[in-house]
Each structure stands twice: as C-alpha cells, then as structure tokens.
Amino acid sequence: MRKILQLKLKILAGLILKKYQPQVVGITGSVGKTTAKEAVAAVLSAKLSVRAPKKNYNNEIGVPLTIIGADSPGSSLIGWIGVFFRAWLLLLKRDRHYPEVIVLELGIDRPGDMRYLTKLAKPQVGIVTTISHSHLEFFGSLEKIKKEKQGLIEALPSKGLAVLNADANLVKEMSAASRAKVITYGFSPEADLRAVDLRFNYEKGQGFTPGLSFKLEYLGSSVPVFLRAAISEKAVLSALSAAAAATYFGFNLVETASSLEQFNLPPGRLRVLRGLKQSVIIDDTYNASPDSTLAALEVMKKATLSGQGKKIALLGEMLELGPYTEEGHRLVGQKAVEAGVSQLILVGERTYHIAAGAKEAGFNEDEIFHFGQASEAGNFAVQRISQDDLILVKGSQGSRMEKAVLEIMAEPQRAAELLVRQGPEWAGK
Q: What is the CATH number of domain 271-424?
C-alpha cells in the first residue's frame, strides 16, 4: 500500500510541477537542512511567494506532500482522499496563489534516495550543507554518503546554481560534479561568499543572550548582518547558504541582509528557551550526530554565564552511527570536559560511551547520571538546576529529548509552539 501511495503521489506531484513550473530549491546535508530551509524561505519571501515545509517532509512521501501543499494525514483514509482531491483540484483549476518558489529538504536514508527525489522535484538550485556520520549505518563510509548527496548537484541544470559549504571538504569537492554555476560559502578565505568579524552577544559578559552579528562579503561588496535569535556558527552558515541561493533570484546583499534579520531558528535547533529557576536552556533536541553535538558543546564552551551559573548537559543517544557509535559518543564526552560542563545527565545505553570519554578526560564521575527515559532525566534535572545555569539538551530523534526540555522549561504551556514533535502523531510515543 505504501508503494502504491508513493507512486500516486509522485505522479501527481510531477504533473503539478509541470503545470505551475515553480523554481525549486533543494537542500541536503547531514546537518543543518532545516535551518538552511528556514533561512532560504525567510530571504526569498521578501520578494517572492515561497512554500517551505513546516514539518520534516524530506522523503518520498513528504516531498510530494509539500508540492501538493498538504499535511500528512497519517493512517486516515479520509485524510488521504482529501490529499488526492486537493492535488486533482490543482490540476483541474489554476490556483493563482500557487508559490513561485518551493524550498525542499531532500533527506536520504539509503542509496538511491537522492536520485528518486531529484527526478521527482527537478531543482534549479541545490544547497549542500555538510557530510557527516549520520546514516553511516546504511552507507558504510563517508565517501558513499557524499556520493549519494552529490546526486543533488549532478541533477542541476546548466543554468542552475550549486551552493556548497566551503568549510566542509567533502562538500566543496562536489563542485567538480556540477554543470551549474557554483557558489561556495563559509568562513574560509577561499569561500566565494563569506562571513567575517563574527560577534556573539554573549561575549559581552552580560550572561547568555541570543543574537550575533557579522559582515557578509561577496564579489568585493560587504554588508552588516544581525541574526537576532542565533547563538552559533551553524546558524551563520545557514544564513550564508540562503544569501548564496538568493543571488540566483536576483537579490542584492542589502536586500538579503535585511531579510535575514527576520530569520528565526526552528524548534529544537539551538533555540534559547527560558528555564526553571531563571536558568537558560539551549534546546537542540531535533536530532543529533557527533558533529552537531560537538558544535553544540562548542557553543557551551564559548558561553559566558552570569552569577554562579554552571553548565549542564542533558544528552541522549546518537543513532544510526554503525561502527562509529562508540568513538562518536566518546568524542562527545571529551568535548563536554573541554566545554566546561560540570554535570552530565545522560539518556540511553549508548551514552555510557559519552561517560567513558568524559571520565578519560578528567570529568568527575560523581557528576554523571544515567537514565532510561528523557522525561526521567528531565525530572532529575529539575532538582539539580539553579539560577543562571546554562543547560544544553540534545539527542537523536529516537531519544525524544524534548521530553526532558518539557520538564525544565519555564513555559511548558507553550510546548506546542516552542518544542519539536508536539503534534498528535507523536502522542504516546
């Protein structure tokens, strides 16, 4: 039934794209797809009608649903009938409000996924963020993951645009596979479009406050950019990828910089939330890989705290790492020590490797605590946190670490707005 559903969605989505001919921006990468998607949508929406999926619609079912403009009805037969009715209505009548640009996340789980998605959507602009150990279990090596994601760049037309992260060597190498124009972005001096003079609000010694500024340089021009909700270099990279993509649509740097001020991070992606007892939470619970967790801990390392605040890390397991499972978790434990974390609250069997790495680096064993469920860890953390503490919460989707955030956030009544995986499809899981 799933294959039949997938085939029908593919056919209908293809017919809709052929009729309306929107420009398609495809985004892939092991980390940062969703944040880049939000940044691209924020910039392009200033002058164009744009559609970007609100949820994690990045596979053979989700991509057609985004093209149709429908939410997944799950297992509801009536809901799916509604989806197909909406699709046929788009084909039978012209919708004057159909978007000019569709921004798609293109996720891969197994070999062949990217070829399927790019044949379905045919992007004109392709953005690749990073290549890391996510999905290593199914591909076996980083080189094979690179080859799969490179399919996005190979699928671009000669008049299209490839946007590649210059700070990630495996991504930068993809330029050789592109028929389209290539713009590289990053902090590297070799990047075509780069960020310089990066400054964080929390470097001012006034506690941990979101917001950062930098100068955006491209083709000899430079403009200042302020990201009011950002706390990490990862958000800057997403902003840079959006700025590069915007050049395809004729945006200048001033227009792009102005639009980026409205860019807000999606739930569970390094968002700052108010915690209990006047603590501060860094909610990075959407997903986790070793690279993204190390990056989150780097934010902790740079953070200056107010008063007697301490750094606490609530970390869940990182999944789908295959043979890299033990090493990846150990590296996180070592980084926690370097970041100045004083308490580790861990969820899941694999996090014993985090504990081992931390202890090897000199972490106090008495400040490491293990739990089987995220909600249990959150309840325990309530007893441990105090005023001005900075708490990082992160883990793979399967760890459901947003349940820990729910226990320690100051506004649990806003969970549906602020946290990931709050829809009815996640109830009881």
A: 3.90.190.20
